[in-house]
Every structure is written in C-alpha cells, then in structure tokens.
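User: Predict structure, ligand nicotinamide-adenine-dinucleotide.
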Amino acid sequence: MAYEVTLIPGDGIGPEITEAACRVIDASGVDIDWQKAEAGAEVMAHFGTPLPDHVLESIRRTRVALKGPITTPVGSGFRSVNVSLRKTLDLYVNLRPAVSMPGVKSRYEDIDLVIVRENTEDLYAGVEHTVGKDAAESIKIITRSASERVARFAFEYARREGRRKVTAVHKANILKLSDGLFLEAVGDVAKDYEDIEFEDRIVDNMCMQLVQKPELYDVMVLPNLYGDIVSDLCAGLVGGLGVAPGANIGDDMAVFEPVHGSAPKYAGKNQADPTATILSAVLMLKHLGEEEAAERVTAAVRKVVAAGERVTYDLGGSAGTSEMADAIIEEMGQGQPK
Ligand code: NAD
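Assistant: Predicted complex:
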C-alpha cells in the first residue's frame, strides 16, 4: 500500500527542488501517494492566509510531509509560515544533520554533526511589541517541559544512532533564568542516559570550537535561536546550504525540509541544488521505516556528487536541478528518468 505524504512545494526554488526530490523518491521504488498542498505568499490572495487550514488538515491526516522553502517577508507582512507550521503542529524538534560528502568543496573533511534544535519557543514564540515609537521588545520564552522533551529526543536519538555524546548549547552565564532553565532541564534528562556522555558549551565558544575542532562534537541540543544560527554554521562546515537536510518532528507528525530558504534569485531557473531536499526526503524514508531505500538514495546522491559532473553550480558543475535528479535516478538504476 502506498504511503500518503503531504507535499508542500513552497515558493522560490521550492517547486523545482521538491519536484526533483519526488522523482528521485518515486524511482527508489517506495510507493508514495503525494498529496499536494500549497502554502506561502501566492495562496494569500485566494485563502486570506499563507497557511490555509486544508494544508494543516492534510498533514494531520497523513502525519508526514515533504516541504519546500517558503519566503518570509522581512519586517512587516505575514508571520513566517515555517514557524507557524512548526508551532501549530507542535513539531518540537528541528533535526539537522551535517555530514561531509566527497565532492563537496569544504575546508573540512569527515564532519559528522547533528543539531537538535528546539522548535516551538524561545524568541520564535512571536511575543513582540513596540514600546512607544522608538523601542521594541521580543520576549524569550523557555519552559522546562519544552526543554525536557527536546533533550529527551536528543538523547534517544543519540542512543538509537550509536552516538557517543550530547552537548547542550546555551548562554546561561548571561541569561541566567531562561538559558539557565534550559541547561538545568537538559542536565536532568541526561541523568537517565548514563551511556551517553553529556557536556555543555556557551554558544559563542561553541561557534569557535566548531570552526576549530568540529571533531570534538557529536549531537548538540540547543534552544531555537542558537539552533537556527549554529545549524547554518554546521551547513557551512560541510560545504553549504545546498547539501543540508532537515526535519521537524513532533510526537506523531513530521515535516521534512531543507535547511536553506527559497533562494529567490534562482527561482524558476532550474539551477538550484536539489541535494538538501533529496536528503530531507531520505530522512523521511527512514522515518517511514524504509531504511534500505534510504540507503540506496543516499548512496546514489553521494556518487553523483563525488563524480562532480552532473551537479549544480554550487557543487562546481553546470547541470540543472532536473538533470542532477536524472543523474541520481540513473545511478540508482531504477528505470529511466521521466
Ligand atoms: P537562502 O537559504 O534562500 O539563501 C542563502 C544563499 O544560499 C543564497 O545565496 C542562495 O542563493 C543560496 N542557496 C540556498 N539554497 C540553495 C540551493 N538549493 N541551491 C543553490 N543555492 C542555494 O536564505 P535567505 O536568502 O536568507 O532567505 C530567502 C528566503 O527564504 C527568505 O524569505 C527566508 O525567510 C526564507 N527561508 C525559508 C526557510 C524555510 O522555508 N524553512 C528557511 C530559511 C529561509
């Protein structure tokens, strides 16, 4: 029986890279019934909201979605669809693995890091107001329950994936109450996982250490804002956003999407790198229990990237998005590219 999966193409480069990813996943032999649901600026005119209810309903029904990036207006305009989606569906973990791939230009080799970012609170809770004309306040919200559940995910993930260490990242020396609570909550959860090493780092030091000695780190658990920033740093270590996958995970639903945004300057040009979205779809295959297909797709992606011929501009090639997907499909040896 086919898996029902909600497909949110997104905007900017989203439709091209999600189409490429769907073709690759279909060619892996896993039977997926993609249920398309549009969200973003373009549906505003039609539905009066960039995140219509039927999109949420579809994900609540299928429990799994693959999503392209969605543009968020800076300053004024609608609230981030990405943040709303994560909050509304209580997708409290943002999982972002950063793994080196032969063929991707980077100053580093053998990077193998995992970011576990809290996804529902912190400064992203959206509690902001102006104070008079010339001041504004954003409130950072940290709760014990949200910190504990993201920490538990990090330790369970570490145990399941055979990882050795979890590092909590914070700024509790300055934000003694909020980040202090986060650190305390993660430390409490760590006591249930004596087989996994636990340590903590202050976020600024963490950034320097990741640049200087990334091999010292393994799984990191962070509040929302630091997680957002440090995951781009980790994407940089492995050669850029074009190859960085991600997943938003809750207790009974998950939305898989690349770390990168909608890259408007490449929209509609068939030039964007589909790798991050394809690797996000690989995380989705694993989530569905399709381990073997996930490994086959990963191997084909790595081969095509390592060969460096039929790859997009950011990987040193001149192939288009669709041609790179064709190369991956051919590499898997499953049928002809459509
Ligand atoms: P971005 O990730 O879109 O782009 C950053 C840089 O990386 C740009 O130079 C871009 O061209 C390049 N890039 C990104 N993805 C690429 C790909 N697949 N192939 C080749 N090059 C790629 O970040 P930004 O410019 O800060 O944001 C653009 C828009 O995306 C904003 O509206 C932002 O809010 C939104 N955004 C959405 C998500 C999401 O949907 N989850 C995440 C991040 C940003």
